[in-house]
Amino acid sequence: MLKYPNLKIATYTFAFILTLILFLSCNDKKEKTYSNGIFNEKNIEVESNINFKSVAVLNENNKKIIDIASIAFNNSKELKESQVILKIKKDHQNIEFELKRITNENLIIIPEPIFDLNLNKNFLKGTNSSYYLISLLEKEINNQIKLLDSIEKISQDAQFKSFADKSKEVLIDNNDSLEQLLEL
User: Fold this and answer.
1) Does 46 fall in a domain?
2) Does residue 102 form part of some domain?
3) Cα angle vertex 76, ends 144, 175, to 5°?
4) Are residues 13 and 104 in the same domain?
5) Are residues 105 and 155 in the same domain?
6) CA distance 142 to 147
7) Domain that holds residue 175
8) Residue 69 Cα distances to 62, 93, 108, 167, angstroms
9) Into how many domains does the chain fold?
10) What is the spatial distance between Cα 161 and Cα 149, in angstroms, rounded to a whole number?
11) Does some domain include residue 118?
12) pTM beyond 0.85, yes or no
């Protein structure tokens, strides 16, 4: 029936050998692995220069401070208090902008923060609501100073170290201003 039976066998043999060659050539290539956010063509563990969890916590803490500052500004009754709180809010918005810029340059995606301010509604309605909110701001700024200090010590990325150092200076100044307000 078939005119060329050897041609059919040769075709199947050729296809089998071609498939075998492709399969073996794929296994000879170096495997690419994904370790700590960096592609690595050798099977070597790569340590990241940036602690991604610290950056996410910093972003969350910064947004929390901006929200508390907004509430404190709206509740403020004194001019000096309002000025200090507005400065803090603007400084933290600048920190947020700078953090986003640095993370974009380093191809880091920061998850959208989810937090609860845990504000005591009774204190917000009372006459000491400004004192309460300024105390919360001071507490959160102290937390952020500690976090920036940690980032500055641990990070191997020069850009993040510089960011942490500059931000920490601004926060220490703001914290001193808040302490002066609390003493009044």
Assistant:
1) no
2) yes
3) 25
4) no
5) yes
6) 9
7) 52-183
8) 11, 11, 27, 17
9) 2
10) 9
11) yes
12) no
Q: What is the pLDDT along the chain (184 residues), one digit of tens a residue?
A: 456 567 777 777 777 777 767 666 665 444 333 334 444 444 444 445 667 788 888 899 999 999 999 988 988 888 888 999 999 999 999 999 999 998 888 888 887 877 777 776 666 666 677 888 888 899 999 999 999 998 888 888 888 889 999 999 999 999 999 888 888 6
Do 98 and 35 share a domain, yes or no?
A: no
Two tokens at 42? Answer: 């050798």
- Residues sharing a CB contact under 8 Å with residue 64, sequence separation 6 or more, in sequence order: 113, 115, 117, 140
Asked if residue 167 belongs to a domain, the reply is: yes
CATH number at residue 154: 1.20.1260.10
Nearest to 170, CA basis, from 64, 110, 98 = 98
Q: What's 39's DSSP letter?
A: E
Residues 99 and 58 sit within 8 Å (Cβ to Cβ): yes
Q: How many CA atoms lie within 13 A of 70 on its CB side?
A: 9
Same domain, 175 and 145: yes
